[in-house]
Amino acid sequence: MLTGEGKSLTGSLAAVVLSLDARDLQGRPLPGRGVQWMTPNQKLVREAVLELRPIARRLGISFGEVLPQRSVAGKRAAYDADISIGPVGEYLFDELRSRRGTGQPVHGNRGGFTLLDEVDQMLLDEALTPHVLATDARGRAPLADLAWSARVASVLEPGLHFTPTRFGMELTAAGLERIEAMRAGNGDPVNGRDLGSWRNRPLVGRVQNALMHQRLVREGYQFIRQGDEIVIVDKAGERLEGRRWDGGLHEAIEFAVGGPGMVGRPTRMFGSITLAEHLAGRRFAGMTGTAGGALDRAVFRETYGKDVVEIAPRSDRRRDHTVTYLTADQKWDGVFQDVVDTIRNQPDRPVLVMTGSVFEAEAFSQRLADAGVRHNLITARTAVADEINFIRRAGQRGQVTVATNRLGRGVDIKLGGDVEFLANRLVQRRHPGLAGRDRAAYRQALVEARTEARTLVDQERAALNDAGGLHVVLTEFPESQRIEMQARGRAARQDDEGTSTLHRSLEDPLLQPPGRGEYAAPGRARRPRTSCWTARRWTRSSRPRAGRPSCSPAGTGAPAGRWPRPSTGRGRPGSGPAAARPGPCWATGPRPAWRCRPTRRASTWRSSPPPAAGSGSRASTTGPTRSCRPWRRAASSTPRGPRGPSARPAPSRRSSPPGPTSPTATPRPTSRPRPRGCRRWPPASRRSSAASSCARRSAWTARRSPRPSPWRRRSSPGAARAPRRPRPSPTPPSGCASPA
């Protein structure tokens, strides 16, 4: 069922049918029964209530709204109703609060069936996004550290001193050395500090948060400022009231935007939950106008066990166009020319321009205002009452509306205008102040105005259909085809006419790596994005982990005496001075014989280099601490070949394979004690995907012969202990790679 085909009405009918068994014979609500209708935001809650109210009242079915501004008693009454409607975040937060509190939970263990509106957005885009419940922590944010971190971040260079990752910014080894070498008298803003020490370890996160604010999290894109408050804005342009970023990021942004007086108290996490965890074991279904094609249907079937039933559209009169530009300036010129040409050639057609951020919407609005084009602007800064009025007027004759992506899903722009909105305007124009003087007379006048307004809207709708209907203009490359089709679906609804045009360029944010700089024009070379770990199947990141040589294990050409610090070894291969620069990649060089793990103090770790490959000895137990553990023995010094079960033999715990200095394998004495703190295999997070899955299935432990415990109680005081059986070497199951 496409957008505008009546999904809200269909969902109302399904919710009414499923709610008939929500109460017992005495009319009391039953636990585990009832329907919970979840929507992405509060705007869709109002739309669902308008569709459900007349049906539920005629059948005697109760319904309630679960909204964040309601009291505990109001929420409990909404949950006890046969059908409860609310945003998905409020349902998850109420469940988290019930886990942390005592007494009867506010949701009353209700919810026998869950109905998801815009199910593709919830289950495909946000199912694994954690909803974190937090509270104010003790103390205040360290203002001196925030100021120092902001000044340090202003002099660091991208690519050399820090690199963007999936979760934010991370300092490299060269960046930590640059911070340590800072001197206030040599042109640097502050004096540097050694961030590798335990005392200064929290400053690493402070500097990375300051870098995120300067490079990734910008005002008008991810947040807006309202008075003395920083309000987070999601990808759709919706305000997330009352939410804060964790890890000190919100405090860093408040300090950079408003100064010390705007910094709020740090937060402490109570718990987190995802929508996938909430739906585990529950009956649920959903509806959407864009299922996403065969790929997303396979995800629904394999992950959630749900099939997608497609309902053929009643009519499809929308005409879609796409225009591609080279640069962003050319794209915005094309968008402006498209709007101006539509107004000049077809002055009766309404136009809707959809941008990707608040900043872009305000900038384009200013350009239209400078050109003398009258329009309405809808962003996260727009008041709720003004936004409702602008949406109701967006389909009228000659209206131009500029908005963010918050109008791209779940918004019904009615061609010709909204009947209720026009009826209220007619009553206020003819009988000003009647609602306050005589309520009965006002209702009678409103009924008469609705009949007249419906006639006017039908006439204007027919005229606008002859002119071509609503014209939707998209201004950036969308993240997925589902988002694009949702935006285009604002036009040609309810058997109307309409067109849509997507203006995209090679400089759109989707094609730009986060924090890597801008698009390089033709003729200007761009730094290639290299990765030392590309050929390694068991990791996706190009950064070395803390306490592990990045690309220079022992015996592969690493500079002697120079090892990355355990707290800073996250730099990109190839960055930093020549003395700290990593050697040949593991994917193309010889296999590493040892990998090191960090100890309690960085100084002792750096003073204990790993032993030579093939030496046949374990980690040294002499000295103040134990620094290394054997994860894998090197088979040879030849370059690595293709990976796989056949190309990589299973390791043996009884003998060490021949190394570069050992021509034959020497059996290791089984009676030799293992040093404390050393483990035989790495943790599951650093194994290959196949080995991790095998470990989760307990295939390795199931194939081992159990060894009798020496402290196990014997059957009788005089019984002899059973002889120990030899412990064979583990053999990996078929199709699983050995632990690495």
- Number of separate strands: 20
Structural class: alpha/beta
Helical element count?
21
Measured distance between first and last alpha carbons: 49 Å
What profile does the largest beta sheet have? 6 strands, parallel
Global shape:
globular
Give unreliable regions as ranges: 517-675, 677-720, 729-740
Essential attributes:
single chain; 740 residues; alpha/beta
Would you spell out the secondary-structure blueprint of this structure?
Layout: H1 7-18, E1 35-39, H2 42-59, E2 63-65, H3 72-80, E3 83-87, H4 88-100, E4 113-117, H5 119-125, E5 131-136, H6 143-153, E6 162-164, E7 169-171, H7 173-180, H8 201-215, E8 223-226, E9 229-233, E10 239-240, H9 249-258, E11 267-273, H10 275-279, E12 283-287, H11 293-304, E13 318-325, H12 328-345, E14 351-354, H13 358-370, E15 376-378, H14 384-393, E16 400-403, H15 419-430, H16 434-437, H17 439-467, E17 470-474, H18 481-488, E18 498-505, E19 595-596, H19 602-606, E20 628-629, H20 689-696, H21 699-703
Parallel strand pairs: 1-3, 1-4, 2-3, 4-12, 13-18, 14-16, 14-17, 15-16, 17-18
Antiparallel strand pairs: 5-11, 6-7, 8-9, 9-10, 19-20
Structure at a glance:
The protein is α/β, with parallel strands linked by helices and 740 residues long.
Question: Any overview of this molecule?
Answer:
With 740 residues, this protein is an alpha/beta fold. The chain has 21 helices and 20 strands. The strands form six sheets. A six-stranded parallel β-sheet has the order 13-18-17-14-16-15, with helices on both faces. A hairpin with a 5-residue loop joins strand 9 and strand 10 (239-240). The longest helix has 29 residues, at 439-467. It is globular and about 80 Å long. The two termini are 49 Å apart. Mean pLDDT is 75; it is low at 517-675, 677-720 and 729-740.
